[in-house]
Amino acid sequence: MSPDIETVRRYKREIYGEYGGYYYVPMAEAFTVQVPVTVSCSYKKCLYCDLNQGMAFRELSLEEIAENVRKLRYIHYKPAKRFLLAGGNPFFLPTEKLLRISEAIHESFPECEYISSFARADDVTRKTPAELHALHEAGYDRLCLGLESGCDSVLAYHRKGVTSAQNLQAVHMLTDSGMSYSAYIMLGLGGRDMSEAHVEGTAEMLNHSSPFELTVVTLVLFKGAELAERVRAHEFHRLPPVDALKEGRKLLSLLEIHTVWNATHKTNIFPVKGRIPEHKELLLRRIDDALSEIDSQGLKQYELKRWRKWGTE
Ligand code: SF4
Fold first, then answer.
1. Per-domain boundaries in the chain
2. Which residues does a 6 A CB cutoff place in the pocket of ligand 1?
3. Tens digits of residue pLDDT in 227-245
4. Can you tell me which atom of ligand 1 is nearest the CA of 40?
5. Chain centroid, CA 146 distance in Å
6. Domain 5-312 has what CATH class?
7. Which atom of ligand 1 is least distant from the CA of 42?
8. Counting CB atoms within 10 angstroms of each CB, which of 41, 60, 168, 297 has the fewest?
9. pLDDT, tens digit, 9 for 90 and up, residues 27-39
């Protein structure tokens, strides 16, 4: 029997209302059932970030989570197999609590195939190999890691709170536990001054990792982020969008791993996605074509044309 539409609307308001109508979902997990477990991020120090819009960090209690799961079962009355813990970095939660959350989800959704979550590298490295193994056994998989860069100077400048070695330790621990992961990489994060080091360090780090997908985004200046002040003070020099695309091209050309290069995020001026190494040469050619188009007509014209084209597709 299909659920009552008014009840569904009310439940959705009750479940997601605390996020203020907006919360960030990893691109690779867009089509999951999203279970709120934390509000905001436990860290909140990254210079470029304003994703949490000033909200205070809060862990939902197990009772609140169980109640949300019950309501989600009512909304998702057809089989639902893929789940995501919603919030800035829910994998920060203690293992015991994550295990209890998994139990609640599996109890209501016996068809559940995996539970994903955003995670910082240190959310992973704080757990023991045995804990990570237990979490994988309990259904956790396809974690989404915000690695952003493999260059220590870039990570330190943006107060990421981890080094590239810790990023690598996290991905190796996940692999050893059997958990797969996607990874976010941010073009332009080194600005003009650290661009080369950012690309080289990131390629080096990624070539020692094995994400099933790379989500490639471009640095965006959020009004409320501390980075905006540093840009205004001419301390951080942003990379022009075309140079960020060139950065992406260089990074892609240096990669020797098997993964999906997904640069379709709306922050990128040229959206492109494909499997590497199979489609690497094709992707590089398409980026080169876009770069020459931009060269010949200017970025503004190119963007206008692109939006017009999308509008008619
Ligand atoms: S980028 Fe991620 S870890 Fe850093 S403050 Fe924002 S949500 Fe938290």
1. 5-312
2. 41, 43-44, 46, 49, 51, 88-89, 120, 146
3. 999 999 999 999 999 999 9
4. 7
5. 6
6. alpha beta
7. 8
8. 297
9. 889 999 999 999 9
